[in-house]
């Protein structure tokens, strides 16, 4: 496996410090260059993907893009796309997409990802797996040397029925990585419910996951687990915006 990196410098003299949102917008600018008129597009979820959807809306409105049709990966993105008059479809109607663009929570050196801190992992994985290309947009804070290495959540979507039973089984599966498993709750302290009416168990690792492929398989074997946030060998390109430039990493 060989990851290639192309960097475009974005710094000029006396440029004010870029905020994280500025970096996300720069990544989004670069990503929409991949979009061509007539494409069926996967529309990601999260703050970075939302900048991409905004830009697509603008390109459509100004006639710079025509005839694109999107498949949103969450109800939030569906609402945003509708508000921008982006035509929408479903995987049932378009089972093969030309391109999906989405954010990520972690990106490792081989372009494997953790996704789903925004809770949309199931629809994201379905849409992105069905896409001929999958371009990830992120700022440099998302780079990790190993998945699980950010010490932030690696989400697992589980059915509501006996969720605690699966939380304990997930904790047991990763006891060597020193995992802490927690049910995700919303702002009111109630269990967070996904767009698919499931719960999310967040896994917090003390040390990065040693073997992502086997971790994904083992999690997938648990009955009642609907999907997990390891997106392995799925990204075609990752656009990383940092304070010293925008990098495009491809396989
Ligand atoms: C949502 C996701 C998001 O793409 C991920 O959480 C990144 O979000 P943001 O761009 O807001 O950092 O996987 O389920």
UniProtKB/TrEMBL annotation:
Signal peptide annotation: none
One GO biological process term: pentose-phosphate shunt, non-oxidative branch
Cellular component aspect of the GO annotation: cytoplasm
Protein species of origin: Dipteronia sinensis
UniProt GO molecular function: ribose-5-phosphate isomerase activity
The protein's enzyme class: isomerase
Coiled-coil parts of chain: none
Keywords: Acetylation, Isomerase, Phosphoprotein
Alphabetical list of InterPro entries matching this protein: NagB/RpiA_transferase-like (IPR037171), Ribose-5P_isomerase (IPR050262), Ribose5P_isomerase_typA_subgr (IPR020672), Ribose5P_isomerase_type_A (IPR004788)
Pathway of action: Carbohydrate degradation; pentose phosphate pathway; D-ribose 5-phosphate from D-ribulose 5-phosphate (non-oxidative stage): step 1/1
Catalytic reaction list: aldehydo-D-ribose 5-phosphate = D-ribulose 5-phosphate
Function: Catalyzes the reversible conversion of ribose-5-phosphate to ribulose 5-phosphate.
Gene3D superfamilies: 3.30.70.260, 3.40.50.1360
Domain of life (superkingdom): Eukaryota
E.C. designation(s): 5.3.1.6
Protein name stated in the entry: ribose-5-phosphate isomerase
Protein family: Belongs to the ribose 5-phosphate isomerase family.
């Amino acid at each position: 496996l060989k990851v290639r990196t192309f960097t475009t410098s974005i710094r000029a003299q006396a440029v004010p410090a870029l905020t994280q949102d500025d970096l996300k917008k720069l990544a989004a600018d670069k990503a929409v260059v991949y979009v061509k008129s007539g494409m069926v597009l996967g529309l990601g979820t999260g703050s970075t993907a939302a900048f991409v959807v905004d830009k697509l809306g603008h390109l459509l409105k100004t006639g710079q893009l025509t005839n694109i049709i999107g498949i949103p990966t969450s109800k939030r993105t569906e609402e945003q796309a509708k508000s921008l008059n982006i035509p929408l479809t479903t995987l049932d109607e378009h089972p093969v997409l030309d391109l999906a663009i989405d954010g990520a929570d972690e990106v490792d050196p081989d372009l494997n990802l953790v996704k789903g801190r925004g809770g949309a992992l199931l629809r994201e994985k379905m849409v992105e797996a069905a896409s001929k290309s999958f371009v990830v947009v992120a700022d440099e804070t998302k780079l990790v040397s190993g998945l699980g290495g950010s010490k932030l959540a690696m989400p697992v979507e589980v059915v509501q029925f006996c969720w605690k039973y699966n939380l304990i089984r997930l904790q047991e599966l990763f006891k060597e990585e020193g995992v802490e498993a927690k049910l995700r709750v919303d702002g009111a302290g109630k269990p967070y419910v996904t767009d698919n009416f499931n719960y999310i168990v967040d896994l917090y690792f003390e040390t990065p996951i040693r073997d992502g492929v086997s971790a994904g398989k083992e999690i997938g074997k648990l009955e009642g687990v609907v999907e997990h946030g390891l997106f392995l060998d799925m990204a075609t390109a990752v656009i990383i915006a940092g304070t010293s430039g925008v990098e495009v990493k491809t396989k």
